[in-house]
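User: Can you recover a sequence for this backbone? Please restate the input before giving your answer.

Assistant: Of course. Working from this structure:
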């Protein structure tokens, strides 16, 4: 074994296993399997034009060299991004811990109570600090959260049938530039008219439905908006506020002035800057709007035994269900970062946060006073952490600050702003001042925050924020939560469409390094040369893999990529005076985010049928394309299909769309079945998104971080999204899709490392083994479970759908199988997507033959249990699953099967038992009695 070959670590199947597997699958060779799986006319003739893989050790040396090319300056640019101090206990036990970062989105609540609790803490923290009743967990960044507020308030307007026709939205000129750019992107397709101005002179007319304010303003002035909000209310204008979360420790909470929504980022609660992300955005609102909130809400309910249980609440709001009726397409969010930010609040508690906020504020005052005492005019009358200073010679100042390795924000020719943060020391302030003058520091204890703007209300009073302030206590609390969660460090998570593959330690290590973590997204490019090399090369790698001309790394999730891709298509049509094209064809089997994104892009969704083999019904598609020929904008197609099949008609399908003047959007969530064997350009697509957090090894993080770049053909390249602060994107760039120029740049290091270490051959082998593993499971389960769809030669792609509907005859639902798998130590595959009553299994290439076999044995054993089950006797091992330790050790045992069968159904289980921490959750009860913050247990009991 060549231990320098990373592929042999990433791929779980050995050369020796292949014989056994080929026999089960019924092929002579890998070539035969691939030949029978992928249609001939789309197969790549040449190997990927990428270098050979490098060893893990060489990669770490290489990435260290690149890290050294980034220059870590003291950065006081602000504008929504601040250096912060990630407590080492959180870094080591969460960020660097696969028990946390490899977990899946907590759909299976019984084996996800740990991260659900961590997210409930996050929601409580946000509710408390903003003064709002309800918060979600979480959104992609501050700017997209602001856009979600703008669209949610529009939706509320039409729901409440008030202000029909009012389509104007006021945006304060104090808003961050990247947020304004994003609001422009998101408002246009929906017909919202943005009016940007001064809130003090705003005229409240009936044409306005909503308004957005920034608190403190973009250059640090803290405005008193109370009066504005009052007037807005009187005129039935809803108000959202983008607020700096740390400032809320000292400033009056927006909830106390009666606003409708508060949004922002939690980056400065311990999250590395990472050249722009990933960071968790937050969104808080009133209880009355709970059914309209975008993203996920964690709520408290009870389990079968009446014990408290957490789960994702109000799931019917999700775009998976609402599809083209959805008002938001948020799927993957930034869960790992929300967990970390919430834990930062748990560790510091209210007193710790006050200390930090006071430190930041007092340092800012010290700086302001010293500069003022030396004749510099400081403009902000009320501020928290940011001051504005008039300067005579900004060019010279810039030279001086950069010589001292300091970045500040140059507002205009004679004004700068300086934003301080928790990492600033008195020494730093001395250096900063010395750039302006030779002065010594001047203390002045007068207040700069007026009484009316001071926070007086308490926050974070719940026990969880007042218990774990020593490292030992926090370490154990994190461990306690982690133990409740089944992640990839326990067993395979075979989630169809989500590609839960290895997230290698060597790919992850650089994320902890300061030279990657501590870079502000708006620093001059020459300070981020390491990042620029990684991002440029990643773009080229993805161009090669997709066959396309250009890539934008800006979108922070697959769904955001869909939206970005459709917006470039829209811009392309407009550039050809065909802006009327607005019909988007979407097959019935598409993921819910597809129709939701199309509607957000201002398109009209026309659903095309699926034939009996699960393929796109070609004649229906031809008919609809012809019918809408005049106005056809795009087709959105997932390939291989969400049914796990390489449809052989794909080239014909894409040609039909082009013949009618449309563009083809390929949803790249299933790219793991294509890399190195075929590609989106070859099938005839014009643009695709990739989920780097699926195919390209970024960990799922319990529901994010996500990176959803779009790759485009030549004709769409000019329209790739830009950024208002840093130049990026195409020559006729559309406005921003996410806040940071390169989205979640820090997480891109992982995919870069993945591609670099696997190389052309390793990437292609990974795809082949992913296909082999899926077909192996399919054939091992043959005769026990029916696979719903296969390709023309009976092959699955990299995943397959197993039909569980026939078991209804035994009274068994697909959920019972999903829950019973927990007793066997497995996370359920994807349940009821894309077909209700089925499960979709995707093993990925990273799993070993031994693990595939354990999973198959569990499934076969469950199949036998299904045979034993009877419709008239629901007290059975499947219906009662999962079995908790409390159940099995209870003195009373009145189930008609043994404890052994309940908890240790197969021999392998007892060696490595995973205990679900609760029984099944009561969804209806929880949704009726919605509790989304850390309420005391008594409150819950009374509900
Ligand atoms: C995961 C997925 C998406 C959405 O991607 P996110 O990153 O979660 O936004 C879209 N389409 C398909 C088929 C997917 O599996």
């Amino acid at each position: 074994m060549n231990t320098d070959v990373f592929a042999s670590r990433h791929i779980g199947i050995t050369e020796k296993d292949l014989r056994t597997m080929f026999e089960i699958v019924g092929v002579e060779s890998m070539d035969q399997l691939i030949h029978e799986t992928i249609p001939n006319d789309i197969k790549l003739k040449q190997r990927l034009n990428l270098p050979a893989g490098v060893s893990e050790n060489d990669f770490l040396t290489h990435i260290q060299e690149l890290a050294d090319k980034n220059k870590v300056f003291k950065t006081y640019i602000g504008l929504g991004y601040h250096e912060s101090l990630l407590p080492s206990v959180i870094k080591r036990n969460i960020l660097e811990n696969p028990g946390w970062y490899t977990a899946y989105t907590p759909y299976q609540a019984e084996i996800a109570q740990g991260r659900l609790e961590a997210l409930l803490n996050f929601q409580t923290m946000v509710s408390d600090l903003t003064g709002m009743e309800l918060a979600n967990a979480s959104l992609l960044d501050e700017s997209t959260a602001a856009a979600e507020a703008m669209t949610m308030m529009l939706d509320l307007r039409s729901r409440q049938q008030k202000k029909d026709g009012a389509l104007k939205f006021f945006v304060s000129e104090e808003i961050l530039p990247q947020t304004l750019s994003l609001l422009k992107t998101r408002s246009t397709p929906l017909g919202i008219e943005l009016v940007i101005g001064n809130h003090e002179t705003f005229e409240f007319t009936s044409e306005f439905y909503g308004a957005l304010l920034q608190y403190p303003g973009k250059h640090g002035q803290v405005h008193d908006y109370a009066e504005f909000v009052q007037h807005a209310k009187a005129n039935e204008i809803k108000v959202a506020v983008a607020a700096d979360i740390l400032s809320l420790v000292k400033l009056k909470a927006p909830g106390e002035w009666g606003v409708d929504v508060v949004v922002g980022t939690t980056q400065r609660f311990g999250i590395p800057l990472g050249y722009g992300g990933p960071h968790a955005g937050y969104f808080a609102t009133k209880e009355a709007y709970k059914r309209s909130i975008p993203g996920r809400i964690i709520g408290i309910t009870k389990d079968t035994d009446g014990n408290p249980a957490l789960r994702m609440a109000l799931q019917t709001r999700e775009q998976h269900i609402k599809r083209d009726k959805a008002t938001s397409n948020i799927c993957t969010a930034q869960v790992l970062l929300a967990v970390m930010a919430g834990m930062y609040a748990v560790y510091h508690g209210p007193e710790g946060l006050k200390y930090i906020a006071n430190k930041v504020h007092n340092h800012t005052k010290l700086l302001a006073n010293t500069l003022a005492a030396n004749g510099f005019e400081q403009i902000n009358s009320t501020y928290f952490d940011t001051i504005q200073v008039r300067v005579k010679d900004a060019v010279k100042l810039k030279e001086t600050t950069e010589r001292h390795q300091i970045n500040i924000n140059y507002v205009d020719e004679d004004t700068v702003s300086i934003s301080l943060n928790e990492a600033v020391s008195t020494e730093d302030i001395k250096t900063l001042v010395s750039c302006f003058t030779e002065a010594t520091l001047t203390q002045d204890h007068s207040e700069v925050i007026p009484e009316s703007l001071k926070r007086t209300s308490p926050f974070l009073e719940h026990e969880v924020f007042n218990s774990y302030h020593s490292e030992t206590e926090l370490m154990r609390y994190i461990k306690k939560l982690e133990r409740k969660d089944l992640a990839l460090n326990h067993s395979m998570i075979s989630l169809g469409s989500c590609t839960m593959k290895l997230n290698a330690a060597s790919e992850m290590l650089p994320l902890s390094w300061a030279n990657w973590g501590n870079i502000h997204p708006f620093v001059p490019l020459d300070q981020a040369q390491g990042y620029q090399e990684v991002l440029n090369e990643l773009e080229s790698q993805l161009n090669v893999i997709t066959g396309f001309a250009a890539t934008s790394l800006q979108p922070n999730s697959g769904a955001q990529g869909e939206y970005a891709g459709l917006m470039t298509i829209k811009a392309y049509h407009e550039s050809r005076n065909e802006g009327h094209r607005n019909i988007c064809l979407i097959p019935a089997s598409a993921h819910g985010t597809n129709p939701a994104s199309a509607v957000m892009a201002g398109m009209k969704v026309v659903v095309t049928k699926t034939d009996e083999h699960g393929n796109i019904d070609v004649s229906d598609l031809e008919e609809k394309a012809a019918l809408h020929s005049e106005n056809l904008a795009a087709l959105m197609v997932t390939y291989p299909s969400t049914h796990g099949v390489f449809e052989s008609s794909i080239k014909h399908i894409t040609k039909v769309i082009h013949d009618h003047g449309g563009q083809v959007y390929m949803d790249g969530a299933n790219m793991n079945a294509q890399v190195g064997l075929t590609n989106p350009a070859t099938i005839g697509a014009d643009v695709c998104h990739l989920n780097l957090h699926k195919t390209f090894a970024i960990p799922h993080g319990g529901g994010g971080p996500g990176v959803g770049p779009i790759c485009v053909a030549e004709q769409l390249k000019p329209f790739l999204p830009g950024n208002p602060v840093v130049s990026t994107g195409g020559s006729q760039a559309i406005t921003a899709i996410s806040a940071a120029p390169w989205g979640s740049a820090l997480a891109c290091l992982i995919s870069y490392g993945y591609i670099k270490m696997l190389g052309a051959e390793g990437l292609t082998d990974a795809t082949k083994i992913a296909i082999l593993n899926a077909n192996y499971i399919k054939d091992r389960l043959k005769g026990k479970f029916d696979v719903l769809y296969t390709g023309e030669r009976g092959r699955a792609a990299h995943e397959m759908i197993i039909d569980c509907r026939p078991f209804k005859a035994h009274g068994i639902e697909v959920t019972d199988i999903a829950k019973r798998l927990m007793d066997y130590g497995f996370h359920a595959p994807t349940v009821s997507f894309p077909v209700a009553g089925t499960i979709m299994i995707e093993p990925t290439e990273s799993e070993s033959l031994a693990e595939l076999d354990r999973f198959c044995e569990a499934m076969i054993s469950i199949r036998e249990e299904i045979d034993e089950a009877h419709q008239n006797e629901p007290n059975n091992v499947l219906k009662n699953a999962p079995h908790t330790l409390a159940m099995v050790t209870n003195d009373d045992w009145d189930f008609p099967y043994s404890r052994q069968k309940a908890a240790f159904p197969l021999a392998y289980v007892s060696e490595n038992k995973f205990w679900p921490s609760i029984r099944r959750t009561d969804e209806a009860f929880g949704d009726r009695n919605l509790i989304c913050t850390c309420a005391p247990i008594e409150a819950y009991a009374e509900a």
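That completes the design. DSSP finds 31 helices and 24 strands in the chain.
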